[in-house]
Amino acid sequence: MSGFVFSEKPIRIDRGEGVYLYDTNGNEYLDFGASYACTPVGHCHPTVVDAAKSQLEELFYVQASYPHAARTALYAQLADVAPGDIDNVWLCNSGTEANEAALKFARHATGRPKIIATTRAFHGRTMGALSATWKNEYKDGFEPLAGGFEFVEYGDAEAMAAAIDDETAAVILEPLQGEGGVNPVSEEYLRSVRTETEAAGAALILDEIQTGLGRTGELWAAEKYGIVPDILTTAKGLASGLPIGATLCREWIAEDAGNHGSTFSGGPVVSAAAGATLDVIERENLPAHAATVGSYIREEIDNRLGDSIREIRGHGLMTGIEVKRGSNRLLRDLALEHGVLALPAGRTVLRLLPPLTIEREHAEEVIDAVEDVLT
Ligand SMILES: *Cc1c(COP(=O)(O)O)cnc(C)c1O
Q: Ligand 1: which of 126, 236, 343 to mutate, most ligand atoms within 8 Å of CB?
């Protein structure tokens, strides 16, 4: 199991504000991804704190069979911002659960067994989602996993078309892979997968747990590519770090989704925090801001460090820097020498997933720090 970020020199965080985290010694860190994309509007955004606090004082919990205002409002808000005609919402507590529900719903609605996932995919660690996850290191020793899963090369439209048949319940994929190395695919590929799944009567599940909520420059990456999936999953930063997941479905899935449930589905406090987070993302126009600052970061790093790296890729504020050696040492140096927290994505990729609220000056600081540790 994973423990401290740097076992020999653990950083103990006890406070967060905006784009910064503070450790117990009062050191300041720019949070460029260490919070796993869970803080799209920054740490402890006052609007989100207020919403969660007042809800906490009014009603902590009520079972999901009684409607309450915060959950009902969140259903409406998610349906409103979801791409196209997706307007049914299932709420849960994490990304893996959102995908778990997506896989169950797709099987039930289609009455078919087969799920197609892609190489290098990451969809979570519970048995179903893990069965759609690529890397063996996440699966070793946990077999047998769920049956009926098949993998095809990510980005290969022909292989995907060949794999989809009349036994296929769903294709699940990330519109831009995160954990697997920050791997983009072409619009043509995504459109082709959309066309092929539709023609076969199979569901397209887009896992937007990392790409969603404005990170790639649109509220959802699906919008960037002009496609509407049958099911879209979101989690991570939806409630600014309180545990939540959502499975958004088109009508044909929702009306025949089968029997599913969860004790904590759409709890009052997380629902209030999620509603407020979505409000801030919209009010502050954060997707467009992410597009501008993100492009700047990639262009600058490419201009200044093109020779010292293999590649830089991504969209909006989701960036992967493929380096020429292991990324562990670099991540350590960034944190301990420059106060910049970043993430790996595999062994040789530095992943930057900052809050969408970062300003140009924060981008500059990180670009300088990356330059320093790389040269
Ligand atoms: C993080 C992540 C998940 C899993 O979410 P958890 O909340 O950790 O279960 C699934 N898919 C993608 C694309 C993710 O980035």
A: 236
